[in-house]
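Just wondering, does anyone understand what follows?

——
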Amino acid sequence: MQGNGALLQLKLAKYGVPQGSNLGSLLFLLYINDLPNAIDNLKLILFADDTNVFCSHSSWTELKDMVNVELNKIAEWF
């Protein structure tokens, strides 16, 4: 299949719940509410399906390094 000049490959989803179902919302909240346990130095605000990440440091270099480490932890968690 091709769309906008890019090749697409369809795959069968083996697991999941229908989008918009009551169970889907509950399972998403159970899943995402564990995210703060995966990080050490970032502050999170979770609201429904929106997540904001905050961090501060007096040194730009230290901030950049710290955020990259924390974002890698989040990627691993996902």
